[in-house]
Amino acid sequence: MGVIEEGAKKSSVLWLSLDRPRLAWHTWHDDAIYLVTGGGEQSLPGLAEAGEVRVTLRSKDNGGHLVAFDASVEVVDQAEAPDAVAALAKERLNAPDAARLAERWAAASRVIRLVPREPAV
User: Which whole-number Å values give the CA distances from 72 to 6, 32, 55, 90, in the listed order?
Assistant: First the structure.
């Protein structure tokens, strides 16, 4: 999984195949991709209900296709994953309520964990 991990760590954005291709910011933590949706954060309709999603990472250097893969989708119990929520919050740029970000997410957002499967060729 070296290419996926390296690509996810180098770029803070990825593409998800949902109702249409959706750009999303994320963080890599504990061998998975974490992102947040809803509650004033990025809109990723249908992601939380999906069992699997297609993820595309692009090169940060030239924007070219780096790797595409399927990932299982898991809604994170934020109270049981404080380290993952903290890692994600650290990557959230320009939050108007940075000091209360985790509290807002717990009340109104969903944190999602994407567990990569083997990359497609």
Answer: 19, 10, 10, 24
Query: For every one of its 121 residues, what pLDDT tens digit does the chain have, with 9 covering 90 and above?
Result: 588 999 899 888 999 999 999 999 999 999 999 999 999 999 999 999 999 999 999 876 666 778 999 999 999 999 999 999 999 999 998 888 888 999 999 999 999 999 998 655 4
Q: How far is CA 48 from CA 52, 59, 90, 94, in A?
A: 10, 26, 22, 24
Residues 6+ apart with CB under 8 A from 17: 53, 54, 55, 56
Strand 32-37 and strand 13-17: the pairing is: unpaired
